[in-house]
Design a protein that fits this description.
This protein is of the alpha/beta class and 202 residues long. The protein is built from six helices and five strands, in the order βαβαβαββααα. α1 packs parallel to α4. The protein is globular.
Length: 202
Amino acid sequence: MSNNSFVFINCPFDEEFKDMLYAIVFVVYRCGFKPRSALQEDNGLINRLAKIEKLIEECRFGIHDISRTESNNNSLPRFNMPFELGVFFGAKKFGNQKQKGKIALVLEREKYLYQQYISDLNGIDTKAHGGNPANAIKIVRDWLRVCSGVKSIDGHVKIVKEYTEFRQKMPVIVADSGLDITDLTFTDYCVMVEEALSLNMG
């Protein structure tokens, strides 16, 4: 698969965001692209930043959700997502000709809320999903359709319906695979989506 089909996903990976992550991964696959995440890399000899740098280098497209920068239990903010977005910006600005072709989608919960904590981004067009997976599917689908120029991508209404059906079947799929739905790896989820779409579209 061409690197032009790789989509770097930069978002929270915790339980609270899981529904959003699952929806984003599903729509990326459904539109004919390949999601890439640091969660797919499990080499103990490579530090996390090196993994992220490698993934960003490989991916033309990047989805960056910066909606979760609130303080944790120690009253400290979470800067991983804005930091990785900055690396993506840097690759486009200072990289070679291939890197200069990068395209990003910046997601947040509420439109322009980012201006209160990362004003350097003023002027970019973020998209607000409101914490709703169906909204995220529409936003990602529309973005990929426009930026990639692929005319065969189905509409968001159809994709949302398929995703809803997939999530309803997911407990059975997980059980049949001998896995634990409360402890599902990113890679296992991706395989399930790939297989489900292959069956539905084959």
